[in-house]
């Protein structure tokens, strides 16, 4: 995180909440050469994280591996956390695209429960990997994201439902709710907020195989109004 704060005024009181802003790049590259440089730094930084872990990702190591000057790194990334933030963004975008493709590729006999379970497993895996990459940064960034979601901090960052509408469209014949807009909102907030709560309070739940099954059963019941007969075998010990 950068050493700056964001002050958010609570509408119901005179108290001011001081929040540390997530680390971000110093500026965006504009010319072809600088775009290629930043892309190389992102790729190299991610390779170091995946192969050797957070402690190995230093400005010196990044410069040596990518073959660039340290000054070129700091021109765009004032800290290694600023680079990690972008690496996380890249990884999330990749997994979102893969999830949408995965939902579309489910076999014809797949059920709504199958789609929900796939969505949860992909989403939880993203948080697991980010916690492995940099647990301290992941917790701080997740805390900030939750403050934004709760409208306690104003930011330009917005989240949009991607998997939820894809699921509801693919399995529309199984959904039994009167208010589709309300159901989509509730499902989206569940899929967004519960994994974040695990990051902040119960990180062990992220890797517990029962976790996605338990949440999937809850979401399935929300959309269908009843427990699914086919999800009992998936639940295993999750009862």
What does this structure look like?
This protein has 239 residues and is mainly alpha-helical. It has a domain of 149 residues. The chain is 62% helix and 4% strand. It has 10 helices and 2 strands. Helix 5 packs across helix 6. The longest helix has 26 residues. The protein is elongated, with a radius of gyration of 20 Å. The two termini are 40 Å apart.
Secondary-structure blueprint:
Elements: E1 5-9, E2 16-20, H1 32-52, H2 59-66, H3 70-76, H4 80-105, H5 112-133, H6 135-149, H7 163-170, H8 180-201, H9 210-224, H10 232-235
Antiparallel strand pairs: 1-2
Helix pairs in contact: 1-2, 1-4, 4-5, 4-7, 5-6, 5-7, 5-8, 5-9, 6-8, 8-9
Please provide the count of β strands: 2
Please estimate the helix content.
55-70%
- How widely separated are the two ends? 40 Å
Instruction: Tell me the Rg in angstroms.
Output: 20 Å
Query: Which structural category fits the helices and strands?
Result: mainly alpha
Described by the principal axes of the CA atoms, the overall outline is elongated
Largest sheet: 2 strands, antiparallel
Would you identify the regions where 5 or more consecutive residues have pLDDT less than 50? 1-13, 235-239
**Tally of alpha and pi helices:** 10
How are the strands ordered across the major sheet? 1-2
What sequence of helices (H) and strands (E) makes up the elements? EEHHHHHHHHHH
User: Which percent band covers the strand fraction?
Assistant: under 5%
Integer average pLDDT: 85
């Amino acid at each position: 995180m950068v050493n700056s704060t964001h002050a958010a005024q609570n509408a119901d009181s005179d108290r001011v909440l001081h929040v540390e802003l997530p680390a971000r790049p110093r500026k965006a590259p504009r010319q072809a050469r600088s775009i290629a440089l930043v892309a190389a730094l992102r790729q190299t930084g991610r390779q170091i994280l995946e192969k050797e872990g957070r402690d190995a990702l230093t400005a010196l190591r990044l410069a040596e591996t990518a073959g660039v000057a340290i000054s070129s790194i700091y021109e765009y990334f004032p800290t290694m956390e600023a680079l990690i933030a972008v690496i996380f963004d890249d990884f999330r975008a990749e997994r979102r695209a893969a999830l949408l493709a995965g939902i579309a590729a489910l076999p014809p006999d797949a059920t709504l429960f199958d789609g929900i379970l796939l969505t949860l497993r992909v989403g939880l895996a993203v948080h697991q990997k980010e916690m492995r990459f940099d647990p301290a940064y992941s917790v701080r960034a997740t805390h900030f994201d939750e403050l934004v979601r709760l409208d306690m901090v104003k930011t330009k960052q917005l989240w949009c439902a991607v998997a939820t509408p894809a699921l509801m469209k693919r399995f529309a014949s199984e959904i039994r709710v009167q208010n589709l807009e309300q159901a989509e909102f509730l499902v989206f907030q569940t899929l967004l907020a519960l994994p974040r709560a695990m990051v902040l309070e119960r990180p062990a739940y992220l890797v517990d195989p029962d976790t996605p099954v338990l949440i999937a059963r809850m979401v399935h019941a929300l959309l269908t109004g009843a427990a699914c007969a086919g999800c009992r075998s998936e639940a295993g010990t999750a009862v």
